[in-house]
């Protein structure tokens, strides 16, 4: 392990992000069983290019420091002698044979050694060539489209007892390896930093066409890092705290209207409308009249529906085609707002909202975000701040209705924080709402809004004992990983227990990645969490409620109630 971590290797399929998942016992067993079939030049000239550049005398000296503990397999040949048994050679003999063989290969000109060197430099790593491919996915062929319509069930069936499976190519969907452990998923997220993985392939038209080439979700490194650095100042703790008063005003107005509605409301649709108006207000820094909000909400709903509108064919009569056209109308509307913001900025005026931070962002060379970068990422911010929040809050409402003692704990928490900070909701109050935070995170554990994501192998590498060829699509089953978090498998994993999230183990990330991981962690996470906490603060302080949770839950952008979750609010 020390050798692989520190040696100047440019050939082995191990990187800083995948090294922790490598099973070294498997590698050692593989080497000892197959080394007699390898061209020895491969280990000298490719696994360690520094040694390949040395003279025979220099190599002899170097090898004396690097070969202690070599295990010689039965039947292998060292120094022209066959090993009769598997064992450890004496130190002087081992150094002499290994160094002599290395020096011979370094200076050899015979044709056999030449061909061995050519094979070794062809780019085919013998470690990887001998590794197995994952077993096939366990789903029956007629259930494979469940990946779109019931992802939790698809993920469970596909993986079965395995840690990785190979899914076949489906209609308009690429073949893929489904990863079955949190460590693998985290390695796939983090692998972009060292070139092991990259973003989903461009032929996934549903993602790229609807989210845009300049969306943070679509950009590979290093473009992703550059753009993220320009965008992140809009999401600092100070920036979010400045948005809290507008959050409270928008949410309180909607919740008061629900309490006045005779016969109650459909909570899911009302939450969607509320969070959409909220995200428009905080992104663009101003309120818009109801007709404008309704029109924009309709366009947004059509666009978001296209993300799951299989088949992904751009025709006038398909949902996907309608989504493409709705996206263009939203981008046109954003462009008008961007142009106005730039005019204000040029006139020396301040530009409020997240848009103000984005149009003001400048890199070290004086470059600003382009129209395409602004448009694609305003769409992404709306997706993250609208659908994530509304779907999660819909599930929160159902959970609270079914667990009244959790509502009482939320009320007690509000009594404590208001006694300390007053009635006005501030960043300090949101920070101390630890139980509300636990309620949200436990809801996300059970009902992850983003059921799965895709990455692509940027080169051949090893993962979980299997060979992952370059170009392979990696499916990251976030719902399955969260449901099988080892921390909770013996503690009623299917139950809604917010208290578990307040334990030392619960404070860790574990296998839960609702907002991504590593360099791909959601930029709008803080906005979404602040919005949901403001909602829970107002709910616990001002309202009683009752929901009809006796319904089927279907997959849209997240898991939503088929009946819309009828709810009666009372002050």
Features:
alpha+beta, 571 residues, three-stranded antiparallel sheet, five-stranded mixed sheet
Q: What features would you describe in this structure?
A:
By secondary structure, the protein is of the alpha+beta class. The protein has helices at 2-6, 24-34, 40-46, 49-52, 56-64, 91-107, 111-120, 126-130, 146-149, 151-159, 182-190, 205-211, 223-231, 237-260, 267-284, 290-305, 319-346, 353-360, 371-402, 404-421, 427-432, 434-446, 478-483, 525-542, and strands spanning 71-72, 77-78, 81-82, 87-88, 164-167, 176-179, 197-199, 265-266, 453-457, 461-463, 466-468, 473-476, 544-547, 553-556, 558-561, 566-570. A five-stranded mixed β-sheet has the order 5-6-12-9-7, with helices on both faces.
């Amino acid at each position: 392990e020390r050798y692989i971590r520190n040696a100047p290797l440019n050939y082995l399929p191990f990187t800083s992000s995948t090294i922790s998942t490598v099973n070294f016992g498997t590698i050692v067993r593989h080497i000892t069983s197959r080394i007699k079939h390898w061209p020895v030049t491969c280990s000298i000239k490719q696994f360690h290019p520094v040694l390949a550049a040395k003279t025979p005398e220099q190599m002899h000296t170097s090898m004396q420091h690097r070969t202690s503990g070599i295990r010689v397999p039965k039947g292998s040949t060292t120094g022209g002698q066959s090993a009769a048994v598997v064992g450890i050679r004496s130190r002087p003999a081992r150094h002499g044979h290994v160094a002599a063989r290395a020096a011979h290969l370094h200076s050899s000109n015979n044709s056999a050694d030449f061909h061995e060197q050519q094979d070794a430099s062809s780019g085919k790593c013998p470690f990887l060539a001998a590794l197995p491919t994952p077993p096939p996915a366990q789903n029956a062929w007629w259930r494979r489209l469940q990946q779109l319509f019931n992802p939790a069930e698809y993920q469970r069936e596909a993986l079965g007892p395995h840690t990785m499976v190979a899914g076949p190519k489906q209609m308009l969907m690429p073949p893929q390896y489904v990863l079955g452990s949190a460590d693998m998923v985290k390695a796939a997220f983090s692998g972009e930093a060292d070139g092991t993985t990259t973003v989903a392939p461009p032929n996934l038209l549903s993602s790229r066409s609807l989210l845009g080439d300049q969306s943070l979700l679509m950009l590979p490194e290093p473009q992703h890092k550059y753009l993220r650095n320009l965008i992140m100042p809009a999401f600092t703790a100070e920036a979010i705290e400045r948005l809290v008063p507008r959050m409270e005003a928008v949410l309180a107005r909607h919740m008061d209207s629900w309490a006045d509605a005779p016969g109650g409301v459909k909570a899911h649709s009302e939450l969607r409308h509320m969070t959409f108006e909220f995200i428009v207000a905080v992104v663009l820094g101003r309120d818009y009249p109801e007709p404008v909000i309704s029109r924009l909400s309709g366009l947004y709903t059509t666009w978001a529906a296209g993300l799951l509108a299989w088949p992904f064919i751009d025709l006038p009569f398909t949902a996907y085609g309608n989504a493409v056209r709705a996206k263009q109308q939203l981008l046109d509307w954003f462009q008008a707002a961007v142009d106005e913001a730039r005019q204000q900025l040029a006139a020396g005026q301040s530009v409020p909202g997240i848009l103000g931070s984005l149009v003001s962002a400048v890199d070290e060379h004086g470059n600003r975000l382009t129209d395409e970068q602004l448009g694609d990422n305003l769409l992404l911010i709306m997706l993250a701040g609208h659908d994530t929040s509304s779907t999660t809050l819909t599930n929160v409402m159902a959970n609270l209705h079914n667990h009244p003692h959790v509502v009482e704990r939320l009320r007690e928490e509000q009594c404590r924080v208001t006694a300390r900070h007053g009635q006005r909701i501030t960043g300090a109050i949101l920070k101390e709402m630890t139980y509300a935070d636990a309620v949200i995170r436990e809801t996300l554990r059970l009902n992850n809004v983003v059921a799965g994501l895709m990455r692509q192998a940027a080169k051949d590498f090893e993962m979980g004992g299997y060979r992952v060829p370059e170009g392979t699509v990696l499916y990251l089953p976030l719902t399955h990983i969260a449901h099988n978090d080892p921390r909770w498998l013996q503690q009623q994993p299917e139950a809604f227990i917010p208290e578990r999230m307040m334990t030392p183990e619960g404070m860790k990330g574990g296998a839960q990645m609702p907002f991504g991981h590593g360099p791909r962690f959601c930029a709008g996470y803080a906005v979404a969490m602040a919005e949901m906490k403001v909602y829970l603060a107002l709910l616990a302080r001002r309202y009683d409620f009752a929901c009809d949770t006796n319904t089927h839950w279907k997959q849209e952008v997240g898991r939503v109630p088929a009946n819309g979750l009828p709810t009666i609010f009372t002050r």
